[in-house]
Amino acid sequence: MKQHWKIAYVCPRYAAGAAGGAENLIQSWAERMRDRGHRSEVLTTCARDHTTWKNELPPGEVTVNGIKVRRFEITSHDREKQDFFGEKIIHGQPLTRAQEEEWIDAVARSESLCDFIDQHRDEFDLFIFAPYLFGITYRGMKIAPERSILVPCLHDEPYAYLKIFQDLFSQAGGVFFNSASEQALAHRIFAIDRERSCRVGMGIELPGQLRPESFREKFAIDSPYLLYAGRREGGKNTGLLIEYFRLFKQHQGTDLKLLLMGTGDVSLDQEARRWTRDLGYLPVEEKWNCYAASEIFCQPSTNESFSIVLLESWRAGKPALVNAFCPVTRDHCLRSQGGLYFRDYYEFEECLLYFLDHPDRTNLMGENGRRYVEKNFTWEEVLDRLEEGINKMTKSNFEL
Amino acid sequence: MLNQGLTPRHLEKIDMKNEVFEINTSGVDVETIMERVCERVEEKRRTGIYERYNLSGALALEMNNLRSDDAYLNYYLKTIWRAADVDLGDFEIYSKTFLIGRPAVWLKKVIWKLLKFYTFRLFSQQKDYNARMASIVQGLDAKYERRLAALEEKIGHLRQD
């Protein structure tokens, strides 16, 4: 059996400090698999923004953190068509297969990237694609499905039920998941051979010594705070969290504040600005110190396949409050005993009050979360699982 | 029940791809805490504490959570009455501003009386419609549950035969 592979990682966007979870995952895998002796290359597009898909970066070869990255131009993105069919999909209106393909191509497609895969397919042992919901993945995986691994980053969303994805999942050489709930969801929706499916995830490790005091001092934060980290957008329920926290401040007399960290625009009215602080994107070291300085971490999103930020906050020893409608984050809480979950505002309020009124148990939950991450999501464990998954897939699918 | 199938307090170990996946249960039982949280919410609902909460902004955003999955559907079917049962009665009118407090309260009371006079008929009809719709939806759900149960029983008998 071959010990070292030449792997092409294919993802729609790739840059140092990529904001998306899937991009972050691919970047970490590529760099760490390279350190284990595997040859890593990245095939991506010139786009930076997943809403406009504008070719902002120059096409060609660059090196990012020691990894060869080939960028290709986006050749089709039709926002109007994407929204037109997208609306129909969300409202459960049936589309023909041709219309579904028209929609996925309208999201983002790169002909030159597909041509490259086609012309160089034999130079790579395998291709790893992430996430599933883009024309780049859909078209790219069709070229050499037997040697393609799909890392879907799947959520329970209307798009997942399209006919085109049935083929994508069933024909993939392997499908690697981030969590047990994501894997269970995929097996419920798609016909995936269990031999080709495995759970890998991402390693979460501290970058060094945490310094919460220096963080508080630097940003002049003297109140306890509930932390949200990640992209700020409707799909992540950031607006819902701000609304919930507004109600919490109106009805409960605490000095708890809301702190936001991450990319994307967030609109705060005058009232909200009194108890919300938006720090925007923070460098890695400050991000970790921000976790460590928080009281509680909140992940209101229902669209998570892993939730890196939740695991990072646990690694920093903080308890979590998550949305009960997200099976993945709720499952993490139940497995780790590291957090609570809410279905509506009333439960959100009561959970926060529980955390504030029971500091000992709150600390224990944070500690449980930390142990859960240390036990299961070290890079050593994750890369072992990744290599084992590739080995298992190569045994059952093709000779490398 | 949202937690169905996940009872970590009864499981010391969960198998994750052949590896032992340990659960840390020292001193905390999240499910028990969540039961307590839900009890507290029910208690507060019964005592009317939530009546002064204006959740309109949050409710619109919560719609994002609506899914076709059974768990979500069951939850909303159970709680549909909370949204349908709009309180049309009087409520305490007060002012947060000390200086113009009394005239402000008087003005608000006048406005409320006028509003109530002109809109009560419309709102009470809407409330009646909401209640009927909620009853119909819940009734249909119960009816199909019963029919499905009867069909499953029949299939069971046929299989035995």
Question: What's a quick, concise take on this entry?
Answer:
Chain A is of the alpha/beta class and 400 residues long.
Explained architecture:
- The complex is a heterodimer of chains A (400) and B (161).
- Chain A has 400 residues and is an alpha/beta fold.
- Chain A has two domains: 6-203 and 378-397, Rossmann fold, CATH 3.40.50.2000; 212-376, Glycogen Phosphorylase B (Rossmann fold, 3-Layer(aba) Sandwich).
- In chain A, 45% of the residues lie in helices and 16% in strands.
- In chain A, strands 3-4-2-1-5-6-7-8 form an eight-stranded mixed sheet, with helices on both faces. A six-stranded parallel sheet of chain A has the order 11-10-9-12-13-14, with helices on both faces.
- In chain A, β10 (257-261), α10 (270-275) and β11 (276-278) form a beta-alpha-beta unit.
- Chain A is globular, with a radius of gyration of 21 Å.
- The termini of chain A are close together.
- In chain A, 51% of the residues are buried.
- The model of chain A has no long low-confidence stretch (mean pLDDT 91).
- Helix content of chain B is 61%, strand content 5%.
- Chain B has two domains: 1-53, no CATH class; 65-161.
- Chain B has four helices and two strands.
- Chain B has a two-stranded antiparallel ribbon.
- Chain B has helices spanning 30-46, 56-62, 70-84, 101-160; strands spanning 13-16, 19-22.
- The radius of gyration of chain B is 24 Å and the shape is flat.
- With 161 residues, chain B is mainly alpha-helical.
- The two termini of chain B are 34 Å apart.
- At the A-B interface, α9, α13, β14, α14 and α15 of A face β2, α1, α2 and α3 of B.
